Amino acid sequence: AQKVTQAQTEISVVEKEDVTLDCVYETRDTTYYLFWYKQPPSGELVFLIRRNSFDEQNEISGRYSWNFQKSTSSFNFTITASQVVDSAVYFCALSVGGSQGNLIFGKGTKLSVKP
Amino acid sequence: DGGITQSPKYLFRKEGQNVTLSCEQNLNHDAMYWYRQDPGQGLRLIYYSQIVNDFQKGDIAEGYSVSREKKESFPLTVTSAQKNPTAFYLCASRSRDRGQVDTEAFFGQGTRLTVV
């Protein structure tokens, strides 16, 4: 069975702090994809990143970075120098079986960045 | 602009009524999905469709029904059999990638359904 666990329900930081959102996944498939989405208060999910199971390179995009470690089945997301606009719910998701299959989501982490 | 449109944004239902949530996409995506979001529960899959005239139940399909008569449209009906329908409903779509890559899903802005 596939599963995504985001153990942090809510995180609160002060602006300019760095923050890491944890994601642990479970799957027996050798080919899978991992995603991060951001859900601002407006409700729509915004795609942030996709990573396949064969690519363990870390990725950096501006203030965002992602650390994928197959050894620990984790795909963590770090925001450097957080800003108030980063306040949102962040979801980690797992996909197996191709694009016609299901996306399995974690329960999300609500991030509040205070000025 | 290409995207996914959900309507209405807010919907109120009386107990015992069926209501239909609309989802339209102009991205030419093959797969479409309906998720339900409750506070603290993440997104749970209701139904998904990989091609026209075909769909599969997700984890919480009871009390819901769907149709996929056109590629662009995937309406969700919340029936009176759904005992606790108050929630935020999100529709999504994904393209079929011929290189066997799992593509990302694109989401609509959601419909907030409230039972009154």
Describe the structure.
The complex is a heterodimer of chains A (115) and B (116). With 115 residues, chain A is mainly beta. Chain A has strands spanning 3-5, 10-14, 19-21, 24-26, 33-39, 46-52, 59-61, 64-69, 74-79, 88-95, 103-105, 109-114. In chain A, a hairpin with a 7-residue loop joins strand 10 (88-95) and strand 11. Chain A is globular and about 45 Å long. Helices cover 0% and strands 50% of the residues of chain B. Chain B is built from no helices and eleven strands. In chain B, strand 4 (31-38) and strand 5 form a beta hairpin. Chain B is globular, with a radius of gyration of 14 Å. The A-B interface holds A 6, 9, 32-33, 35, 37, 42-47, 50, 52, 91, 95-96, 98-108 and B 30-31, 33, 35, 40-43, 45, 48, 50, 58, 88, 90, 92, 94-97, 100-110, 112.
Write a short abstract of this structure:
The complex is a heterodimer of chains A (115) and B (116). By secondary structure, chain A is mainly beta.
Q: What are the key terms here?
A:
heterodimer; A: 115 residues; mainly beta; six-stranded mixed sheet; four-stranded antiparallel sheet; 12 strands; 52% strand; globular; B: 116 residues; seven-stranded mixed sheet; 11 strands
Biggest interface pair, counts: A-B, 28 and 31 residues
- By oligomeric state, this entry counts as heterodimer
Task: Let me know the largest β-sheet of chain A.
Answer: 6 strands, mixed
Radius of gyration of chain A: 14 Å
Estimated structural class of chain A = mainly beta
Q: What portion of the residues of chain A fall into strands of 2 or more residues? A: over 45%
Annotation, overall tally of beta strands of chain B: 11
Give the low-confidence spans of chain B: none
Q: What is the H/E string of chain A?
A: EEEEEEEEEEEE
Give, in order, the helices and strands of chain B.
Answer: EEEEEEEEEEE
Approximate shape of chain B: globular
Please give the share of residues in helix of chain A. Answer: under 10%
The DSSP helix count of chain A reads: 0
Q: Report the span from N to C terminus of chain A.
A: 41 Å
Large-scale geometry of chain A = globular
Number of strands of chain A: 12
Percent of residues of chain B in helical segments? under 10%
N-end to C-end Cα span of chain B: 35 Å
